[in-house]
Amino acid sequence: MAAVASLVLATWCGLIVPAPGALAATTTSCVSATQERPASSTYDVSKDCAGFPDLGAPYVFHVGTLWVWRLVGLDVLLVATGPATLTCAAYAPQPAGWLRATGCAVTR
Fold it and tell me: Any signal peptide, and if so, which residues (predicted)?
């Protein structure tokens, strides 16, 4: 208990500063994102998300319409599932202007 109180006091007084990555997260809103392939954690995020300030991982994309691959009958179709949040480990800008986000977890 005393160790926790000492750590809190030291942090509050500025003697211990949390690592920037521990507090950082990059968050932006996007019109849409599309799952790269069935059962993939890679998503192609719309062009309107490009150019946001990069504060480090995790990268959080609030998506208006998420498109995912689903089995419908005997076909695998791309289906709109509505708004979602993608929390991703990394992203890479693509030549056409959109982003490829990798290592993503989806919450609705």
Answer: 1-24
Q: Which of 92, 89, 87 is nearest to 103 (CA)?
A: 89
Helices and strands, number each (H, E), in the chain: 2, 8
CB-facing half-sphere around the CA of 101: CA atoms within 13 A? 31
What does the pLDDT look like over 28-75, one tens digit per residue?
A: 999 999 999 999 999 999 999 888 889 999 999 999 999 999 999 999
Report the pLDDT value the prediction gives residue 25, as an integer from 0 to 100: 86
Query: pLDDT tens-digit profile of 3-36?
Result: 434 444 443 444 444 444 444 689 999 999 999 9
SS3 11: helix
Q: Which two tokens stand for residue 81?
A: 């599932």
71, β-bridge pairs: 76
Alpha helices in 13-66 (DSSP H): 20-23
The H or E element spanning position 19 is none
